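Quick one:
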Amino acid sequence: MANSIGNITRLPELRKRIVYTLLMLGIYRLGVFIPTPGIDPDQIEKIMKSGTILENLNLFSGGALEKFSIFALGIMPYISASIILQLLTVVIPSLEKLQQEGEVGRKKITQWTRYGTVFLSVIQGLGISYGLESQSALLPGVGGPSFYFLTVITLTAGTCFIMWLGEQITERGIGNGISLIIFAGIVTRIPAGFRDAWVNKDQYGEFLGFALLLVAILLMIAFIIFMERAQRRIPINYAKRVVGRKIYSGQSSHLPLKVNTAGVIPPIFASSILMFPATILRFVENEQVKAFVSHLQVGQGLHNIIYISLIVFFCYFYTAVTFDPVKVADNVKKHGGFIPGIRPGKSTADYIDKVLSRLTLGGSVYVAAICVLPLVLAHYFQVPSTIAITFGGTSVLIVVGVAMDTVAQIESHLLTRNYEGFLGDKGGKFKGRKR
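Output:
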């Protein structure tokens, strides 16, 4: 490991990418502590303690919401806009055609996603600013249209800046920028989560309960790593080839299909969809709306049902978007390969699709169980909501998944330049979730 870290310093390009990524994440963390003008921090603290929906959003924003900083909305509006565009791509043929036009189409869709981010940030900013005024969370003399305008501009600009940081990290740094920003926000909350777990250990079993919590977290991490690297290997044989006077014997290979092809995207998308309306409705002064929002609190029955349904949907949806069995079957056929017992062409595509559908079902059940089960258990064992959310399955899954992807990218940079990877020559190449 020490030798592998030393190899990173010998690659100027990789070193610059890592330093650039850390610098951008540092700028993001700095912005978390810049407050939005006109807000009473004491009132914000009281509001934050009144609902786990806000605690969940605060976790994804890296603590920016509890300070109501310029990054209070976090990256969730961008993720919501991405979801909408991807769903529309499936429904609208012109968008699907645009997506298939390569780099030009991708840039156009990215531009529309940015416009959608601005629109959703404005809507969410208006809802939150109105709610804060109605709950007297403003400093004396602050309020009215001027406060709405200033708050909307500040929060929208903050979200757009985070979006820009994420794109810069993806392009010039290492790893996926948006995922790393969410990763950084969750990781920075972990020390405070351990502190709260120790201070409140009397609520769930004193020292023994705290020890069991640590063991449960370690077991969950180990299980996630195992499942994220699990794959179904479909055997592929290649026929003999005659090149000139030489006959090359057929070779055997395999097509690896991940159990969880979608990675951390489903829980992130599901959380974004649930938190966007709940955050706005949270500030509406209506008894029926308040009753509905209370059922959307993290860990409640309605929340769990919707959350599980969204996770399963996005597991299938994102797998269908990123993996095309027809193209894979065509590529296998072009290279003279075939699956034993399966005819090349359409039959191969149908077989791969059948296997992938079954794997995705198992992967979606695994992701849903990891994200929901810890919250349900925490509810029965009376673990405080802040601790349950910080160390819940969603948080751990995102942290572990993003860390694995980032390490895999660093590993790829090292191996392409003939350097030993993190696991050494004997350990082989470290495989991220997308490999």
